Amino acid sequence: MSKIKDILSIELENDIKNVIDLNSQNEEDIKEELDGFILTESLAKHLSDFLDVFCSDMKESGVWLSGFYGSGKSYFAKMIGFLIANPVIKGTSMRDRFMPKLIGLKNKEILENQIRSLDKTDYQVTLFDCAKVDSSYGLSYMAMSHFLLSLGFLSNWIGMMEFNLMLENKYDKFLATVKEQNAGKDWHDIRKKMSAVSALKKAILTFMAEDEYEETRKLIDEKIKTYDATKLKDDLMLYQELYPEKKIVFFIDEVSEALSQKKINLLDLEGLSEALSSLGNRVWTVGIAQQAFNDVLNASGLNIHQLNKVEARFKTRIPIAAEEIDTIIRKRLLAKTDSGKEQLEAYYHKNNGMIQDITHIAGVSLNVTKDEHTYADYYPFYEHQFKLLQYFLFGSRDTVTSQIGTRGMLVSVFDVLKKEAMTEADVFTHVNATQLCRQAEENIPEALRMRYEQADDYINKIGMKYVEGRALLQTIHFLEKANAYTTIENITKSYVRRPEDYYSVLAEVKKALEILVERNVLIASDNQYRITSQIEQQIIDDMNSFSAEAYRVRAEVTKILKQQKIIKISQTLTSDGQAVPFCVESSLGENFANAGEKYMKVSFFDVFHEDHAQLVASVKQDTQSQKGIMSIIPSSVYGTEIFNRAQELLKIDYIETKTYHTAEEKKVVNNIVSTKEEKMRFLTELINKSYTEGTAVYLFNTYQLTDANYQKEIESLQRKMFGNIFYKRLNVSLSDSLAVKVLTANSTQLATMFGGSEEFRFFDSAGKFIGENLSVSTEILEKCKSYCTGDKLEEDLSAPPTGYKFGTIITAVAALFRGNKLIAKYNGEDYHSVSDALAAKIFDNTRNFAKASFKAVMKSLSYNERQEIVDILKEDCRYKKITGDNAPSYNLNDFELVDCIRILSKRMMDKVKDRIMGDDEMEQLFKRSVQARNVFIQYTAAVTDVTYIATARTFLQEADDYIKAVEQVLKDLKFIDNEFKAIEEERAFIQNVAEEFDKTGNDMNLIRGKKEQFEEAREKDLVANAPLMKKLTQDIKDIYYEVMKHKAELLSGEVIALFTKTEELKQQIAQYPKDWNVRLYRKIEDLEKSWKQYATVKISLDKWSVKCSNTGMLLRDIEYKITNLGIVSQKVSLWDTEIVTQDPTPKKPDIPKQPNGPTSEDKPMPKPQPIHRNMKAKLPRGIVSVAEYRSWLKQQLAMLNMFGEDDILNFDN
Asked: For residue 732, which of 752, 706, 758 has the smallest C-alpha distance?
């Protein structure tokens, strides 16, 4: 069988990083932290709130982020810092890398716009933990030293020296001087060594006298020692004068921790705030603390007037809670492989009933695991265990302030997985409360440890298969501290590790609890168990020694019964506005109310009887012909418990009157007595339940009472009793003028239109029809099983035994029509609803009513069914938003409701047809929406009198599928609107990268797997896999960037090597007069000019472009340049043979002037004769290296440069 570790995505070999290092700026660290950061809805809201303030023009440029240990505030703050600083990581900016985390958030578009608005300004961001750094020179220098680090300087006096050089625009000169003086070594490498000071001094002395340097060094040392808020303000002002476009942002972590450690004080923060306030919103301060701002102020003990500047600066306060820590845990620690998730979901489907039962923990508001996705997400935990663990860790004051509490949820969960060997356990084994307790609580009180050992002694020697003593007590301790009920069921559910073992474990838990209670290790109270002390056990022994007599217990129960609501409602019945009294008494004759009433009586039997069925049968027999007696027989289920709890209260009364001497004894007694009110309340509930869940007997009939129906049942039986005396006569009549008003009145008016008589209580206060079982309704509906005319109704119902008046008949028929219990036919037209415009005409006058026919609606939707349909359409299916029509209401009748289903289904079909159908690729990509049409199509037929009930009930039976179909279509359409275009752009980018790799012969294996994974994710589930596809695209971009960067570096290296050759060539040429080699000089200059731009190539890639935005080159362009450069380099290697080493135009010799003859200018110069030269050099023979052959060629070319162009070479000499 698979192990848990096989289905988890995370590797657990190393401890998790549960503390964020604000100063970590390594690219890989930043990328890893960003990838691990989970932007929950609440964090997204906090981020939006922060950016809303940060990007505004408000004067108070400070924000206070607070949250207890483990809430993720530092992690969140660091992510904000990176968003503001926007470092470029592997060619992609932080903001671009962050954007995919917004997918699926409610305020995605708003957040994206807020983040993009940061592009308008440059920022210098400084992050530091003031509780960890050196505080010797105060808070202001903490801020300045880390500001120096953020600029790339050191954080000591050397950094201050660097800062001053920068302010004087001498820093670049300083760097160049250091490099020149130290054999090309870079200052940033030198300053890491002991030689940094001497190198610094040597370089600075080139533009500063030594005494001036020493004085500057002394001033800086003194400045650091006395550094305060004013100096910080001055330094920041100087920086902003140099860089006026930049804003400075300080993130100061663990402020409250530093205050508690006395590393800083609030007056320091006050001074800092006052100084920086003059800089306006060009300098921001973000304080990060475990305490809320007001708590920090209150804890300082300072007068609030002393802190007005710091309070004003931190007007904006954002509390970071850990309410979604379970989301982070699930995504960081509990992420599953696809196959693992499938295994878990299949296991849930097989065992969902047992899992739902096991995860139902009474006593606190906890979620039951009701679906396979939740189960798989939280496994090997259950969802409710996270809430229990939070209550256990942080639910009480002592826990929050202890070392236990500071461990945090994330670490506790990780420790359970790792230290409890959970990952080595078989799949389908679960974490239990014992393991949570062991890992979440480290410091166990000695008294508790002793109880653990006692439990082991008593239980482990029995040799149970599942239960161990210590483990059982740890489970109880965990539940009790988490404020859950420590009942047998809760203890067992929290102890068992495999659902299928539940009943076996339950049996052992029961046995173990009995032993531990008997041995005084546990106290059993109110069906709960808790670990007891010795004093408590002594008092309990005193209580158990007292035994109350049965008659006292019975009297106590009767006293409580008299005060119950069921007694009060049994005393009277209101009929025709009059209160009709009933005698109420016990079955033994003790009167409770209305002793003088002789004709009608409600008799209550006591709870102490064993055979309920036998007693009911006996009462039925005895009272079968007594029309004036109703009997209430309580359930016997609670009898024993009622007796025991009543006796327990009498025992508490006993110890309350007994004298105890020690303070501890009195405290225990007071604690027990303090439970008396709760125990009384519980006993009262038991007594009330026994009667409200009992049986009513009247005229040989039995009526099962429930808490929901007992009032109605008793009243109904009272009315029956009253009706048996007064037969079918109605006490009041209705006016015929009321009929039309019943049809036209608002729903809220209906309940009050009938004079308050229960006989005509057709509608409740909300306008819901509830009068189907009224006697008048029963009579009318009975007559209307088939169509019955109005005059026939009047004829039958005005006769005995009913004797109804016409006004009662027509108004009651109108009420039944309004309540959708009758349909009407008039002048050949059918009317189903009061919304039919002509329906009211039927009730206008006697003649119209007489001509109309009425028929009872034999089948109709129940109120719950109607309510469920309305809720599904209105809430789950967003009817109004989709259709544009008014959302269905509870006032619609069955026909109208079913027509709403048809309208919605038709609209959903149209949406799929318009946006997806007809395009093969869209149909394939969004096949779930295409499949959803099969759900909708069955509801698009016209609604008829024959089909509406079946259609409605089919809809209710398949509601989950219908809701899922609507959600799927809306989800797909939203994706098409918001994300589809971007995904396709990313796909095109991946194709372009593949094309570049193919054309340049680069290793396609670098991206093949991710490209195939992208296509597979797209085909499998485009919508669900969109975040993964975006990550794959970014990964491929990172790979492409690295290849581009590598090739660019190769190109730059080759160009630099070429320039080295040309430099050497120029040095050779420089040995001769420049005008001898003008042509060669020009060739070199042209070459260097054409290749100079490639000596330093910095790769930058815009969004999804494969072309470098700095150079405009593709990968293939860089490859071509590298290849071409090799050819050029070979040519340059031969240029030294072209160097002219002799004067190409030698000076003409002086010619004597001939008398009276022509001058030399007058005579043409004779053409020089070619020189015949015998060549002795022969081609090399045999095997030679390329270098040797090149050397030979150079010698020959050098020799040729000395010959004339017309000289004749003889190789045959």
From this structure: 758
DSSP collapsed to 3 states, 148-183: HHHCCCCCCHHHHHHHHHHHCCCHHHHHHHHHHHCC
Helix axes 959-978, 894-915, angle to 10 degrees: 30
The alpha carbon of 274 is separated from its chain's Cα centroid by a whole number of angstroms, namely: 39
Given pLDDT bands bounded at 50, 70 and 90, which one contains residue 848?
Answer: very high
Query: 801 preceded by cis ω (within 30°)?
Result: yes
Between 1115-1133 and 980-1000, two packed helices, what is the crossing angle to 10 degrees?
20
- Using DSSP bridges, classify how beta strands 788-789 and 853-856 pair: parallel, antiparallel or unpaired: antiparallel
Q: HSE of 761 in the Cβ direction (CA atoms, 13 Å)?
A: 13
For the segment 897-946, what is each residue's pLDDT rounded down to a tens digit? Answer: 999 999 999 999 999 999 999 999 999 999 999 999 999 999 999 887 67
Amino acid 1035 reads D
Question: Which range is least confidently modeled, 41-45, 55-59, 725-729?
Answer: 725-729
Place of tokens 């991946």: 990
The number of beta carbons lying within 10 Å of the beta carbon of residue 83 is 23
Q: How confident is residue 655, by pLDDT bands cut at 50, 70 and 90?
A: confident
- Taking the C-alpha atoms of residue 258 and residue 256, their distance in angstroms, rounded to an integer, is 5
Q: Return the exposure string of 1055-1075: e unless at least 16 CB atoms fall within 10 Å of the residue's CB, then b.
A: beebbebbeebeeebeeeeee
Pseudo-torsion of CA 293, 294, 296, 298, nearest 10°?
170
Measured in degrees and rounded to the nearest 5, phi and psi for residue 249 equal -130, 120
Kindly give the pairing relationship between strand 283-289 and strand 88-89: unpaired
Spatial contact of 628 and 603, defined as CB atoms under 8 Å apart: no
**Integer Cα distance of 342 and 346 in angstroms:** 6
CB 675 within 8 A of CB 552: no
Residues 726 and 801: their CA atoms lie apart, in Å, by 11
The CB density around residue 700, as the number of other CB atoms within 10 Å, is 12
Helix (H) or strand (E) holding 748: helix 747-750
